[in-house]
Amino acid sequence: MKPMRIIPISLAAITCSILLPLTIVGIGFGIEETSTAVTVAYVQGEAVLTPAGRNASVALTSEGIVGAGDRIDTGKDGSVELVLPDESVVKIGPESRVVVREAGYIEVTKRSSNVLNLAYGKIRAVVAPFLNTESAFIIETENATVGVRGTDFVVSHDKGAGETDVLCSDGSVELRPKDIVRKGLAPILVAKGEGIRLIAGRLPERPARWVDDNRVKILRNLDFKGKRTKKILERRLEYLQDKGETAVEKLKSTGNVLKDKTNRTLRNIFRR
């Protein structure tokens, strides 16, 4: 009987044989196809970017990239429009400070996760439809956390007064007060057309329909002007209207009714 021959195999070969198929599978199924880039789509007036971990600021320009931990500050006449990885769009109003805490979109699972911190000022967000139940879009202020369940809303925060205003133009948002006094309270649901003011140290009131004066005040300087953001919003509106049909087919079947509705909706978004 011949002695058994032992063939030496290197650790590198074993590792390669295990990892190579996994790498191929990962590439094939897009496991690593995660986007985290936040793009600057439009800048008006004074706006600066302070990169994470740095003290020096640089002027913000269109087509620039904003990363996690970066801070954006706008001047009295400044405003900035951002496009997030899932094509949610954000408008930062004048005299505001916003920090991008987290931004990400995983293509294979359609899961998005976006967290913005509003130190002061105001911000408007038109959020892309969630295609994954684990997706999240959150705006934090000093005394509140606002989680999105809908598409179009505004958050304003006055740091000196400790006030956070929330206006929901479409869909709904979930407001969670941060104060210790309110820790035991359930989240507050703000529905379409409703607004609420949260004041530090006080129990929150119920959301209510906001009169036109309040709506105009909070929406001032928050209309979208950038070409890219407008195209995204137009595309999304068409998608929501289509629901399996083309816009042309709908126009043929419904006549001017849909066209008028589309124009009204676009005017509300862009404030033309």
Overview of this structure, please?
This protein folds into 2 domains: 34-219, Jelly Rolls (Sandwich); 227-270. It has 272 residues and is an alpha+beta fold. Residues 11-32 and 250-267 have low confidence and may be disordered. It has helices at 11-29, 212-219, 227-242, 247-254, 256-270; strands at residues 34-35, 38-44, 47-50, 58-59, 65-66, 71-74, 79-83, 89-92, 97-106, 111-126, 136-140, 144-148, 152-158, 163-170, 172-177, 188-191, 194-199, 208-209. The chain has an 18-stranded mixed β-sheet that branches.
How many structural domains does the protein architecture include?
2
Secondary structure category: alpha+beta
User: Quaternary arrangement of the chains shown?
Assistant: single chain
**Parts with pLDDT < 50 across at least 5 consecutive residues:** 11-32, 250-267
Q: Care to count the β-strands?
A: 18
Number of helices: 5
CATH topology of the largest domain: Jelly Rolls
Provide the CATH top-level class of the largest domain.
Answer: Mainly Beta
Dominant shape: globular
Per CATH, the architecture of the largest domain is Sandwich
Please bin the fraction of helical residues. Answer: 10-25%
Rg (CA only): 23 Å
